[in-house]
Protein: Thioesterase family protein
Organism: Nocardioides guangzhouensis
Amino acid sequence: MKSASEGSFYLPTDAPDEVLATPATAGPWSATAQHGGPPSGLLTRALEALLEPGQTLSRISVDLLGPVPVGRLRVATSVERPGRTVALLSASLHDVAAGRPCAVARAWVVPAADDGPGKDVPLPHGPADGAPGDLPASWVRGYVDHVTWSWVSGAVLSPGAATVWMRPAVPLLPGEPLTGLPMLMTCVDSASGVSAALDPAEWSFMNTEITVHLLREPFGDWVCVDATSTLGPAATGIATATVHDEAGLVARTTQSLLVTRRRDRRPD
């Protein structure tokens, strides 16, 4: 794999609520459309900015309303349901050039506490136990070259379930360390590719959304995605994953997949 060539996924602009996506955000199917990871991380960063002291996010859902361009984006946020114990927040991305929304995230907020009944159980392996692995030659080398991959089992080139440790190689924005939930969300959208059930040279399996149920915020700068994809009889599929950090289980995720042959045109 190539080393990261861009210094961040996004660059600031002269407008405080706008960013410019770099080529590092490009997804595997097109150099002009972003992978779902960086927009999910950017939206989560915006959601966290709305939190009050003592609050945390418990569920984050991201809907991709269309291709997220490798271009200028505007970020907007709102509080849909205020509350002292639980609240519902939303954040959206707008394609500035096209004048349309392209992604929206909603998150439930709960009290942050460290005295709950659950206990962490570390995995029997860590990032150092995997190998870099290979990615499909047909994929655009944007996002995939700006993440460090350590494959424990399976591979994109071997269809089926797989387990990989991931770490973004660049931050969302210059000078901001990428950690916690924005880091996790930048990675976990990859579950559908990690567990590819079809040959990616012949098929595309784009996710239209991702839902992440969180147990806690991740520690450190690595997450392990243990993913499986299941295909339906139509142009549908579901990718599911359990997500760990080096201390234990952090989250469970699901993604709805749009499965089409590579020769088919991407729908509007």
User: Anything to note?
Assistant: Confidence is low (pLDDT under 50) at residues 264-268. The two ends are 32 Å apart (CA to CA).
